[in-house]
Amino acid sequence: MSLDTATVRRIASLARIRLEEPEVPRMQAELNGILGWIEQLQAVDTEGVEPMAGGGAVSLRMREDAVTDGGIPEQVLANAPDREGEYFGVPKVVE
Amino acid sequence: MHPTDFTLRGAIEALNEGLLTSVELTQAHLDAITALNPRLNAYVTVTAEQALAQAKASDARRAAGVAGPLEGVPLAIKDLFCTAGVRTTAGSRILDNFIPPYESTVSGNLLRDGAVFLGKVNLDEFAMGSSNTTSAFGPVENPWSRANDPDTRLVPGGSSGGSAAAVAARLALGATATDTGGSIRQPAAFCGIAGIKPTYGRCSRFGIVAFASSLDQAGPVARTVEDCAILLRSMAGFDPKDSTSADVPVPDFAAACARGVKGLRIGVPKEYRLEGTPPEIEALWEQGLAWLREQGAETVEISLPHTKYALPTYYIVAPAEASSNLARYDGVRFGRREKGADLKDLYERTRAAGFGAEVRRRIMIGTYVLSAGYYDAYYLKAQKIRALIKRDFDQAFANVDAIVTPATPSAAFGMDEKQDDPVTMYLNDVFTVTANLAGLPGLSVPSGLDAQGLPLGLQVIGRAFDEETVFAVGNAIEQAADFTALPRLRAGA
Predict the structure, then answer these.
(1) Preferred mutation among A1, A17, A59 to probe B, highest tally of B CBs within 10 A
(2) A interface mutation test: which of B384, B390, B466 has the most A CBs within 10 A?
């Protein structure tokens, strides 16, 4: 499977990474190089194999649905690029 | 003896015997950093004042008779572990101003046990790389160089290149590191030191900047196998803040080092005999197996049939998880922000300016393989092959106690080599990535030198949560190898 330039632009948009037009051909070539190499996996027979989702054999444990942390707005906001009061600041979203 | 030449265990004994203080030991390392770091670029941030204050407090604790297991030992912390009040960059421009308000569990465990932190060490950006050349803070230089070509600067491996270079050059007695596809074991091998990626779930991932959550594991690098064992005991342990942290007891790993290998069955996977592997690495592998046989182990050929699919599987699973994990770097809550016309423009400009080329590439691959219409063909397929890779190991471990392989397919390479094609760089992890996919412990042991005088490592892979056998086998190889060669660039040289 080979990606065309329109697909490369669409993936960049989905990934929220600005891709300048002159960068598209190089990114396209690199992605196609990697995807071409990955293509060999299609040859593996995986009929009836359960996908392995996590990294360990230990099953996830349940915990009480209880608040264990919080009340630290200054710490939460300490690294904010922009803030207004106890809120993160962003450009206007709704007109 | 120069204080930076102690092993970690030797330093603890010297501190216990009052031969020197933690302040003296810490100052010697800070002096070594001042002398050598401008060249090696191993440290991104040096916390000299904090280190000396910690050392002073440690000396006071020791005097009061309340010394912890790592009391007064100066360590380097990979700049992927959040350290409260100390900048944590992940090697990325997008986090170059990030000061965590909290401490990672692993680094917190080390502080609990009395360690002193010298500073934060360099890495490939977001731990993505095998050469430490993708860091936004510049490449790290390997303290080793080729005997016949000392002017060519070599990579330390990656992603934990700063950790490995710092320890090899004696700018720390040990360091934390992380391993998603080989990022502890490959740099350890390239720098002539030991490093273990423990079983998935052994160390808490809380407070470690996430790359690929189902593969990431923290572990130590140090100059001996036993030093790694001492560090891992402190780093490991159950943590309710990480849902994948394993609630299992942490054994005395250092005690296991001396167990010996008599009666152990050592698996030798035939699929790891790759075409194009340098004969020196093949020969070292044979030598390592012979050493183990001499000490009473039996070596057995085994088959791990899906080995050749491990790297391509990894390059679906890891970028997919990375694209999800790195979605948080959007310029809103922390890190760098670029101005944008609207919110989407702000996100896109922030991420384009903040991420380097390799990180952007992996996010793109990950976004593609998870996108509508391709998820089954790529991501689901990769998860199924991952299950087959794990099954290969399960079947092998029914008959053997540990597996021994080369750690890397080459010795350290030049800083300008292998940079043109991403896939060529990815092949560095061909021997290490399987243990991440299967969640198993893997230890790299310095075992010999190539013809150019560069270190080579052997890898020991064990059953899940059986790091003790891994340490026993690694220690046996280390004793037989008697690896005493030293890098050209090092403190006290």
Answers:
(1) A17
(2) B384
Checking A85-92 for CB contacts under 8 A at 24+ apart, the result is: A88/B332, A88/B333, A90/B332, A90/B343, A90/B346, A91/B340, A91/B341, A91/B342, A91/B343, A91/B346, A92/B342
* Helical segments of chain A, H only: 5-14, 24-38, 73-77
Q: Provide the token pair at A32.
A: 């196609």
In a domain, B71, yes or no: yes
Is residue B156 in some structural domain? yes
Question: ipTM above 0.90?
Answer: yes
CATH number at residue B152: 3.90.1300.10
Q: Which residues form the domain of B102? A: 3-258
User: Is B241 a known active-site residue?
Assistant: no
A 8-37 near B (Cβ less than 8 A): 8, 11-19, 27, 30-31, 33-35, 37
pLDDT tens for A41-68 read 999 999 999 999 887 766 778 889 999 8
Residue A66, domain member (yes or no): no
Q: Residue B159: is the preceding peptide bond cis (ω within 30°)?
A: yes
Number of domains in chain B: 1
Q: Is the pLDDT of residue B160 over 90?
A: yes
- Which residue of chain B is at minimal alpha-carbon distance from A17? B348
In a domain, A33, yes or no: yes
User: Alpha-carbon distance B301 to B254, whole Å?
Assistant: 29
pLDDT in tens, B272-309: 999 888 999 999 999 999 999 999 999 999 999 999 99
Question: Is B56 in the active site?
Answer: no
| Domain tally, chain A | 1
Inside any domain, residue A79 = no
Within a domain: B323:
no
Interface of B with A in 198-217 (CB under 8 A): 199-201, 213-217
